[in-house]
């Protein structure tokens, strides 16, 4: 790319297929640089940004690249070199002036936010800006949102807030916060840039990269996962076999329990070993295994702390299971969308080009109405899961509809 | 080496009332032998080794003493060792009663009952009463201990309206004997006790899927009235419906093989098979959607969760036999 306003080197190479976004962020970084030097302010920089876009479009990645470019220490050239220690530490999440809040549980609590607000009030220590990056700002509880609002309303001079959320709908981000942020809207990346990135960054071969980019539905992380993890490919395959595999009524139950079990397994694989390690670490920190006077009372306190940790881990496990299941449901919804597209004779690009045979079969058997009902059932199930319905109950109800139509 | 069994008691189990009675009986026996005996009850978790030593060692004038150690399953290694060493060589006039739930976290604490048994302790077992038949026998015994008699209908009426807590059952039984002439039947029970003490979500679900409109609504109202969480009722409805679906869809009649295939207990399969009459795949599908909806509704989606449950129960009743 020759456009000097849209560099594809350094930290900017992380942002896939979003030239408009890169342009405005780079302008902001240049303006920020001027204002730090005390020159006139062009107005391209501001203290709070809201990154919105569909899941997988790279909201938090864009925010992180922006943070790195703000801290970049390289003299001359395009800011955000990706080579200096500031760039590298920001991208690795270890920069002293960049605080990242990435909730692993179901929500961000007000206590967490208050401590963050305190940290945000300090001047930057080594860099030029203090950056607070909140991934999943849609998970702020009401109280946490209000705590954040106070500081976004009257920001410290050198602090920048970067919020990421699926959309700026009031359900995701309170209007009071939204109105104080400059929006950055990411669009769904196209197939070609994704495939390009897979080839360059992950060294995936052409065929696999093209395939993964075409079936990921514009979700970069998903494309990467599919391209690099054969188990993920297998899971997707299993899920997309469900619609055509429901022959008898008893298949409903096998399919549902299989779906829930595989999402549990996916979430559990990494979760369990991590849980144990964390617990062990905490116990050691609290003085377990020690001997001598006072150890008994110390362990008592440790048990309470371990229980606290277990609670957090459970919240994390619930979330990762839900996320895994949600991903499966999105794939499933894509299948029914493809059937609807095929029935309507549209030439829109299908979600799952590799399942064209199944789609064609379904297309000749189902009416558009029943396909739509099935699609509705999948979407309803996603909503039900977000509302805390037991996964197995919600999935079974959905699959009975998929079976009957 | 075995010790004199009257100086070492082990009360094993976690049925509170029975444990309490056993401890009291042990104290009473000791007092009978030595009316001046002092009695102490302590929780093991509040003890240190030296306190325990002090309690169990003979006193200057060798007065009698009964020491009851409660919740021995929570003892740590050190205390367990101290208890066992005292139990092996009891001081004169000291009676030790160890109360142990049978469980325990630490290995030593878990194995203590066996060690005490080997030392020749007198063991009183008080396991939790879970079987209905055992509970009925308990009520009958309570009544006859109080000097009365009760017939079978009276027993089930009493359990239905008082609940399964043994303490309450025992109190109600002795009260009934005192209030009547000693012959207790259903009318006598009903005169003093009304309503229902325990209705589980499954009782509601069972009535709903068998099409018992009045019975299911009554059970639901009782369940809500006595504070069964709405979420549990919704879960029970969902579980019952899906079990019917799974069993019916499998379409086999060999309950044992089916139980193995579906990894369900055999009694549940048998029950679901009998409930499955009156259901077909489309009505089960409809019912599964209904219970999934109510699952969301009781978790905050409905303005009134009680009403949502009631409507779902009626819906299930309506779907049954369609």
UniProtKB/TrEMBL annotation, chain A:
* EC numbers for this chain: 2.7.7.7
Question: Keywords for this entry?
Answer: Nucleotidyltransferase, Transferase
The GO biological-process annotations, alphabetized, read as: DNA-templated DNA replication
On whether Secreted is a keyword of this UniProt record, the answer is no
Q: Which residues form the AAA+ ATPase domain?
A: 45-190
Q: Which domain of life is it from?
A: Bacteria
Signal sequence: where? none
In its keyword annotation, does this UniProt entry include tRNA processing? no
Q: Where is the composition biased (Basic and acidic residues)?
A: 271-283
Feature: compositional bias, Low complexity = 294-305
One Pfam family from the UniProt entry? Answer: DNA_pol3_delta2
Q: Which Gene3D superfamilies match?
A: P-loop containing nucleotide triphosphate hydrolases (3.40.50.300)
Region annotation (Disordered) ranges: 260-320
One Gene Ontology molecular-function label: 3'-5' exonuclease activity
Identify this protein by name.
DNA polymerase-3 subunit delta
Automatic annotation (TrEMBL), chain B:
Ordered alphabetically, the record's keywords are: DNA replication, DNA-directed DNA polymerase, Nucleotidyltransferase, Transferase
**UniProt KW Transferase keyword:** yes
The GO molecular function terms of this record are: DNA binding; DNA-directed DNA polymerase activity
Q: Name one GO cellular component term.
A: DNA polymerase III complex
- Mind listing the GO biological process terms from this record? DNA-templated DNA replication
Record bears the keyword Transferase? yes
The EC number(s) this enzyme carries? 2.7.7.7
Which EC main class describes this enzyme?
transferase
Q: Which reaction does it catalyse?
A: DNA(n) + a 2'-deoxyribonucleoside 5'-triphosphate = DNA(n+1) + diphosphate
InterPro entries xrefs = DNA_pol3_clamp-load_cplx_C, DNA_polIII_delta, P-loop_NTPase
Task: Give the similarity note.
Answer: Belongs to the DNA polymerase HolA subunit family.
User: What's the protein name?
Assistant: DNA-directed DNA polymerase
Q: Which organism is it from?
A: Halosaccharopolyspora lacisalsi
The organism's taxonomic lineage, starting at the top: Bacteria, Bacillati, Actinomycetota, Actinomycetes, Pseudonocardiales
């Amino acid at each position: 790319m020759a456009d000097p306003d849209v560099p594809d080197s350094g930290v900017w190479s992380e942002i896939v297929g979003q030239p408009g976004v890169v342009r405005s962020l780079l302008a902001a970084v240049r303006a920020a640089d001027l204002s730090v030097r005390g020159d006139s302010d062009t107005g391209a920089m501001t203290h709070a940004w809201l990154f919105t876009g569909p899941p997988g479009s790279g909201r938090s990645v864009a925010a992180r690249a922006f943070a790195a470019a703000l801290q970049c220490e390289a003299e001359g050239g395009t800011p955000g070199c990706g080579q200096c220690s500031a760039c590298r530490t920001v991208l690795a999440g270890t920069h002293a002036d960049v605080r990242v809040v990435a909730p692993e549980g179901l929500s961000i609590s007000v206590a967490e936010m208050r401590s963050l607000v305190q940290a945000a009030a300090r001047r930057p220590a080594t860099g030029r800006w203090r950056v607070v990056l909140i991934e999943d700002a849609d998970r702020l509880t009401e109280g946490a949102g209000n705590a954040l609002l106070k500081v976004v309303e009257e920001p410290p001079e050198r602090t920048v807030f970067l919020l990421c959320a699926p959309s700026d709908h009031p359900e995701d981000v309170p209007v009071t916060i939204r109105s104080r942020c400059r929006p950055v809207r990411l669009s769904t990346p196209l197939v070609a840039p994704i495939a390009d990135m897979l080839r360059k960054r992950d060294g995936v071969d052409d065929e696999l990269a093209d395939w993964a980019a075409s079936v990921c539905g514009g979700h970069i992380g998903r494309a990467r996962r599919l391209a690099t993890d054969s188990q993920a490919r297998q899971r997707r395959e299993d899920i997309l076999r469900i619609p055509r595999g429901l022959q008898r009524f008893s298949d409903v139950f096998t399919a549902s329990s299989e779906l829930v079990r595989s999402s549990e397994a996916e979430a559990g694989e990494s979760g369990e070993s991590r849980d144990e390690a964390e617990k062990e670490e905490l116990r050691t920190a609290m003085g377990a295994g020690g001997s001598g006077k006072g150890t008994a009372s110390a362990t008592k306190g440790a048990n309470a702390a371990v229980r606290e940790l277990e609670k957090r881990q459970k919240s994390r496990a619930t979330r990762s299971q839900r996320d895994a299941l949600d991903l499966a449901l999105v794939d499933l919804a894509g299948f029914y969308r493809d059937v609807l597209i095929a029935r309507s004779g549209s030439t829109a690009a299908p979600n799952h080009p590799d399942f064209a045979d199944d789609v064609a079969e379904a297309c000749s058997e189902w009416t558009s109405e029943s396909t739509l009902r099935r699609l509705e059932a999948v979407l309803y199930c996603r909503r039900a899961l977000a509302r805390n319905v037991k996964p197995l109950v919600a999935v079974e109800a959905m699959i009975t509809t998929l079976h009957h139509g | 080496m075995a010790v004199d069994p009257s100086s070492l008691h082990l009360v094993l189990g976690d049925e509170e009332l029975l444990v309490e009675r056993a401890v009291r009986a042990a104290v009473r026996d000791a007092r009978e032998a030595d009316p001046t005996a002092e009695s102490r009850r302590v929780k093991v978790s509040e003890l240190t080794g030296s306190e325990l030593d002090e309690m169990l060692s003979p006193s200057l004038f060798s007065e009698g003493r009964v020491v009851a150690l409660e919740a021995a399953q929570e003892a740590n290694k050190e205390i367990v060792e101290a208890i066992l060493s005292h139990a092996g060589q009891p001081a004169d006039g000291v009676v030790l009663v160890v109360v142990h739930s049978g469980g325990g976290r630490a290995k030593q604490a878990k194995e203590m009952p066996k060690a005490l048994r080997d030392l020749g302790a007198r063991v009183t077992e008080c396991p939790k009463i879970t079987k209905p038949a055992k509970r009925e026998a308990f009520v009958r015994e309570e009544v006859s201990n109080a000097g009365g008699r009760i017939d079978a209908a009276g027993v089930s009426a009493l359990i239905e309206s008082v609940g399964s807590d043994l303490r309450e059952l025992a109190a109600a039984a002795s009260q009934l004997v005192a209030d009547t002439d000693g012959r207790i039947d259903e009318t006598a029970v009903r005169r003093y006790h009304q309503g229902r003490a325990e209705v589980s979500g499954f009782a509601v679900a069972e009535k709903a899927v068998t099409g018992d409109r009045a019975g299911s609504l009554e059970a639901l109202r009782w369940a809500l009235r006595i504070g069964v969480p709405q979420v549990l009722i919704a879960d029970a409805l969902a579980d019952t419906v899906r079990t019917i679906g799974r069993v019916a869809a499998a379409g086999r009649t060999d309950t044992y093989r089916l139980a193995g295939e579906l990894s369900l207990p055999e009694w549940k399969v048998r029950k679901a098979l009998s409930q499955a009459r009156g259901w077909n795949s489309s009505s089960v599908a409809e019912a599964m959607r209904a219970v999934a909806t109510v699952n969301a509704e009781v978790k905050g989606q409905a303005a009134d969760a009680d009403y949502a449950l009631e409507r779902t129960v009626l819906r299930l009743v309506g779907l049954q036999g369609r």
